[in-house]
Fold GTP cyclohydrolase 1.
Amino acid sequence: MKINGDILEKINGHDLNLLSVEEFGDDHISTGMETPMRPDAFDMSDQQKKDIIAVLFGEIMDVMGLDLTDDSLKGTPQRVAKMYIDEIFSGLNPKNKPKVALFENKYRYNQMLVEKNITFYSNCEHHFVPIIGKAHVAYISSGKVIGLSKLNRIVQYYAKRPQVQERLTNQIGKELSEILETDDVAVIIDAKHLCVSSRGIKDETSATVTAFYGGAFNDPQKINELHNYINQ
Ligand SMILES: Nc1nc2c(ncn2[C@@H]2O[C@H](COP(=O)(O)OP(=O)(O)OP(=O)(O)O)[C@@H](O)[C@H]2O)c(=O)[nH]1
Ligand SMILES: [Zn+2]
C-alpha cells in the first residue's frame, strides 16, 4: 500500500515525532494528572486524523503481509481510524467532555452517595489493548448535587483514552472534586488488563484495584462505610 502525496504532506506537516511530549490537553484540570499530549493535539480536524490513521494502519497491515484487497480486510484501516477517533479514544478531546448539570441540594441529603459498578472499557497506553473494569464513585455534597448519569459519563470520558489505571482513577477523582466543589470524593477502580491476561505473563485471574480518597474519605471509618456500600 502506498501513502498518497496529500496524506504524506499532512503527516509531514504535523510532526509525528512523539519524543517531545508535553503535558497538555486537560486545561480543565491543572493538577499534574493530565494525559501527556502535544500542544498541537487539536490542530487537525477529526476527519484529518481519521484519514491519516487509516493510511498508517493500512501500512501496518501491509507490513504484516495482510492482503488489503481482500473483501473483509480492505475496510479495516478506515474502521480502526473511526473507532480510535470517534469511539475508544474520543475522551482525548475536551470537546467530548460531558456537560454536567448541577442542582441545589434541596433534599438535605448529607451522607455519602455512592454510584457503584460503573462498567467501563479503556485501553492500556503501553500496549493499546483493553482494560475492562468497574468504577465506584462516591461524594458527600457540599451544597451541589450532580445528576447520577453524569457520574457514569465522567468515568466513560476519562476511560476513553490510552490510560494507566492510576491516572484514570485520579483524573476522575479530581474532576469530580472540581465540579462538585468539594474534596469529599472517592473513586475505586477494579479492572482487568488484557495486557496482563491475554499476553505477556498471561495471568487470567489477577485484577488491579486503585483508589482516590479526598477530604472526608481519608478517614478509615468513612472508607469502611464506602466499602460496605460497594460490597452490599
Ligand atoms: N502501573 C501500571 N502499569 C501498567 C498498567 N497497564 C499496564 N501496565 C504495565 O506496564 C508495563 C510495561 O512494561 P514493559 O516491560 O515496557 O512492557 P512489556 O515488555 O510488554 O512487559 P510485559 O507485559 O511484562 O510483557 C507492564 O508491566 C504492564 O503490566 C497500568 O494501568 N498501570
Ligand atoms: Zn498494557
